[in-house]
Amino acid sequence: MSGPIWLSFEVDGLALTLTCLFSLITLFSLIYSLISIRRFGFKTEYYVILLLLAASGISFLYARNLILLYALWEINTFAIWRLVGFHRRDEDIEHAERTFLINFFAAVIMLVGLGLIYTQSGTFDLTRMKGLSLPPASAYLILVGILAKSATVPLHVWLPYAYESAPIPVAAMLASISENLGLILFLRLFRQTFSLPENFYLTVMVIAAGSILIGGGTALVTNRIRRILAYSTISQLGFILIGFAAGGTYGIIGGLLYIIGHSLSKPGIFYAVGIVEERTKAVELGGIGFGPVMPTLGPGFALLAGSVVGLPPFIGFFAKLYVIIGVLKVNLVLAALTVGGALFTLLYFLRLYNGIFKGKTTLEVSPSPVSGMIVLVLILAVVTILAGIAVIIPNPWIEGVMKSWL
Amino acid sequence: MALITDLILTPIVFGLIGMVIKRISRWLALISSAISTYYSIQLLGLLPGSFTIRLTPPVPIIFQLDLLSVTLSIATSVLTFLVVLYAINQKIRDRFFVYIPIALGISLGALLSSDLILFLFFWGFLLAIVFGLLLVGKEGRDPSAAAQKALFLLGASDFAMLLGIVLLLTTIGIGSLTPPFPKPLTSPIAIAGFILILAGGVGKIGGFPFHTWIPKSADVVPPATMAFLPSVLDKILGTYLLIRLLTRIFIPSPSIALLIMIIGSITIVIGVFMALIQPNGMRTLAYSTIGQAGYIIVGLGTLHPIGIAGALFHMFNNIIYKTGLFFTLGSVEAATGRSNLEDLGGLAKVMPITFFSFLISGLALAGVPPLSGFCSKWMIYQAIIQSRSHWLWPAFLIAAMFGSVLTLAYILKLLYATFLSEPPKDLDLDRIQEATVNGWFPPLLLAVGAIVFGVFAYSVPIARIIQPILPTRIEALGFWQPVLATILLLIGLLIGLLIYLFGTALRAKESKIFIGGEEIDSEEGRIPGTHFYSSLPQIYMLEKIYTFGKGGAFDFYNYLVGIFTSLGIVAGKVIEFLIQKFYEVIAAIYRIAGGVGSEAHSGILPNYLSWLLLGLFFLFLFLW
């Protein structure tokens, strides 16, 4: 290992798979940005920071040193801060600050936890501390950081504001890259490296279940489109976290499939919503009636929503099924709550779909070059179906990822 | 093995090709259902067999063939063929013909799969396709509200079943629909799993409380969709799951049987009473579908061999005559462009074959001997009497028998209003033509099927189809001799015909009504069938019940959505609000602290000096 001692990386199937996924979404978001960001200022900064967000997210997958992980984590937070406030209106700046402060505050608490690990093991290198036991205090401190980054109740409050201000491609990347980092850290630390007492995992499961229900419930009664998507993300991240916390083959594989499924479909949904916003200037449900304007956008949206809801043959089905199996092996009540959360998902996506695509339009629809981005929505919709079929049909790629965890 | 994958994949692939090349999708649907019929008949040669593609996780693909699944596969394929044949030249959007073969392939997959997760995959996939199919509306109608209702109700029952199946997988270790031997239902977890899966089966078959999407869809989707979904696919799959659940996976206890029979009886009563008062033929048939699902559920709930055989037989009968009824009323709608009973009448003269098919299928539905519905209902009654599992059994028997009588009542209403009553003025009978060959042939074939399944009930369906499927022998059923009864009935009819021909009936004279020189408007004297039983909702107790029903009090969907919405309000408006407030309080504290600090640092030297002195004072105080 040459270079500074803390620069330690390791390649595994999970990191490779997620790299492909993150790169794909970054590419799509860049394509979308080329069209939608054109008329704004600060373009150079935008692209640099967008790539910084992607780069920090991707390197995070390979990093095996606590200092390095923390540094990348903070770079990512910094990038989010700059991008959320991109439009520079007063409320955007306030939202960006809110985002940054909560994430930074939680990260500092996490840093204390990481420091505690160092005092315990004398090293920052994750590969050298495999199997060590961890003082629960430090696990809980690190959990604070993870919950904030992965927008889990009660540290989710930044996400609705961030989504409201961020440009659409940034929101897509937040949903599919940044917010997964917390979950990946959870997997790396608490599943791959350390083993912790059962009640820690149970606590996390309860928090995650609360996140699923509160996120889903709030998404059902909110009217602003982007806030609905934010609470939907909060709820979906809860599913992933509950899978990882439940552990076992099913829980972890379910969580990983869930990351793939959610990271494929949420950006597509954002792009679709972005097209609607751009052309109608609508921010709230009701009176949009976008269905007849672009007849293929509605079905594309519905396919992506079907994946998030968890209908076969989309990848979301297997993800949800395995997470539920994993949770059920630990606790029956939490599994029932998880299924209830799935029904929330079905309901709020029906409501969102009706609100955007059904009914009569009362808004003026203007043409926009962003409409061409419907191609991205359709590609992602097809990919979610193909990914679902890939889970059933034997293929080396998915199996490789699974084998690294079995 | 290859045969099974071909059987499942052929229709799906044909459907996908049809999605790309819309022009030929109709013919692709027809060809693929014919191929499926051929393949599924071929499956009989493989019996009994179990086929595995791969055993490693994540999804073990295991298929299991037995007579039940293969017979039902053949039935599904044949009926789908008839549906496509019937619909092929109707004004239905091409998307219909894309979804139908895909739905067929998926249902065959569900029928043949043995592994529970694979089954769940097909079952849920079917929900997605059913949603798409229900979104294909009639011209000028928006079906999306009905489709969403279906999606949510069926989705809820599917998620319940998912939880139940996962529960069986993880805690009891049942991973297959066809385990080597059934387990007793003893532990609470097993009972919970059983009830959750039961919800899936009842939801699919269209039983209470998951039934309300069917009537809502009835007059917004094409008749062919109604013939395909609630009356063929859902009945077959729901019955299949319930039979597997009750006979192969578990040995149910009497209390579970009671639960199932209560659900079934409620379903019968709701279906029948609501069917009576519908002003629209399609809606009547939709409620009728629900009522007949109730018979199947009650028959299965008896847990008696005759009851299960009767339920299976009733399922076959039901898909035969109910599909025929949907077809015929669909033809009427296509020919006249109307669906409300009030606007129809007198079509027997101009659509004789359709009328005949409707008559036979309708009487079979009502259980008029010797047609098919009679025998299966008879078996179900007998099972209720013989099993006597609970002191409530007379109530179930009354529900079933009354249901049968009232079924006859609403069928007569439909028959009269559509085909026999005086036509309204604006309906020009001369311009209405009989349906084309593919329009009248499938219902006629099904009507003949209803006759065969009734007259030769023992020798054809029971001995050749039902008995081989079931493990136990079906005992002789009372003194009912359908062939003899038919002969006697025919003699009776012949005598009636002779009396008609040689009696006074033909010599009656028709003359114009004359009252005081006034012209009587013929429309005023017309009695459309809608007035039948219209006094029913005015009976004291029933009045209130019907009023409640109209307000949606019996609609489980409203309750379910209400529960989730109120939970959402609690989560969104209360908990979320409190969390946000908490953060705002923290921010406010910081702001106040900052404000105090900045007030203190005012830039005036004496102020800083006094702070210094105060600090020194505290320092002394502590260090002392």
TrEMBL record, chain A:
* Cellular localisation: Endomembrane system; Membrane
PANTHER family under this entry?
NA(+)/H(+) ANTIPORTER SUBUNIT, NA(+)_H(+) ANTIPORTER SUBUNIT A
Principal place of residence? membrane
GO CC annotation, single:
membrane
- Keywords noted in UniProt: Membrane, Transmembrane, Transmembrane helix
Instruction: Report the membrane topology from the UniProt record.
Output: Multi-pass membrane protein
Domain NADH:quinone oxidoreductase/Mrp antiporter transmembrane: where?
Answer: 63-345
Question: What's this protein's name?
Answer: NADH:quinone oxidoreductase/Mrp antiporter transmembrane domain-containing protein
Q: Which Pfam families match?
A: Proton_antipo_M
UniProtKB/TrEMBL annotation, chain B:
GO terms for cellular component: plasma membrane
Task: Say which domain of life the source belongs to.
Answer: Bacteria
Q: Where in the cell is it found?
A: Cell membrane; Membrane
Q: What is this protein called?
A: NADH:quinone oxidoreductase/Mrp antiporter transmembrane domain-containing protein
Q: Which UniProt keywords apply?
A: Cell membrane, Membrane, Oxidoreductase, Transmembrane, Transmembrane helix
Q: Work out whether the entry's keyword set contains Membrane.
A: yes
Q: How does it sit in the membrane?
A: Multi-pass membrane protein
> What InterPro entries is this protein classified in?
ComplexI-like_HydComp, ND/Mrp_TM
Q: Where does the NADH:quinone oxidoreductase/Mrp antiporter transmembrane domain start and stop, copy by copy? A: 113-402
The residues that cross the membrane are 27-47, 67-89, 96-112, 118-138, 150-177, 189-208, 220-243, 255-277, 289-316, 350-371, 391-419, 439-458, 479-502, 556-575, 604-623
Q: Name one GO molecular function term.
A: oxidoreductase activity
Supply the source organism for this entry.
Answer: candidate division WOR-3 bacterium
Pfam families the record matches: Proton_antipo_M
